[in-house]
Amino acid sequence: MPLFFDSTGFQQQDQQVWVHPSTGDIVGLQYFDLVPDLPATLDDLPKLRHDLTIIHGQDGCLIEAYVVNFAGVPALLRLIKNPLPGAPAGQLFSAVITVPKATCSANLQIMCPERGTTGIREAMLMAQVGPQNWFVQHPYAPGFTGKLPYHVGDDARWDPQFPEHPLTRARAWLHHALSTARIDPGFAALPPFQGTQPPPQQQQPQEQGPLGPGSNLRTVVTGIPVGGILPLWLDQQTCAYWELAEPQPVLGQLGSGKNGRSPLQDNWRRECMLFDMEGKTLLAHERFTKDDGGVVAAQVPGRLVSREEATARVNEQTMAEAFAWVGRVYEQAVERNEGVLVGPGGVELYGRPRVVLLGMAGVSRIDASPPPVGAPIWDDQRQPQDPVGPEDAQVLSSPITNGESVRAGGTLAGFAARTWNVDPLHLAVSFKELAG
Question: Could you tell me which CATH number the domain at 3-188 has?
Answer without folding.
Answer: 3.40.1000
